[in-house]
Amino acid sequence: MGKGKVTQRKEAVREDKPKPWDLSLITALTLALLVSVYHYKHISSLFENDRFFSHLSTLEREMTFRTEAGFYYMFFKTIANAPSFSEGLHEIVNDNGTEYPSTINTLSRFNVYPEVIIGGSFRVFNYLCEMTGYQAKSCYNINRGYGQEPVRSCIGLGDETYYYLTCVFVLGGVQMGILFMLCRHVSDSIMGGVLGVSCFLFNHGECTRVQWTPPLRENFSFPFLLLQILLVSRSLQKAELQRGWLVIATVLFVLPWQFSQFVLLTQTLSLFFCAVVGVIDKVKVERVLDAVFLGYVIGTVLQFGNTMLLSSLYVSAYLGVKLALRVHYERSKVIEFCIRCTVFLTLFIAYKYLSGLILNLQDDAHIFNILKAKFTEFKDFHTLLYVCAKEFDYIELSTFYKLVLTLLLPVGLVTIIRLVYNFTLCQPSPTYAHLAYHLVQFLCFLTMAILLMRLKLFMTPYLCVLASLLASDFILPQTNTSRAVIVTLLLGAMSIQGVQNIQAQRNIMGEYNNPDQEELFTWIEKSVDKQGVFAGSMPLMANLRLSTGRSIVNHPHYEDVGLRERTKKVYQVFSRKPGAEVHATLSSLSVQYAVLDVNWCKPTRPKAGCAIPEVWDVEDIENRDKPTFCSQVAYLDKLFKIVFSNRTYRVIKLL
Question: What is the mean pLDDT of the chain?
Answer without folding.
Answer: 89
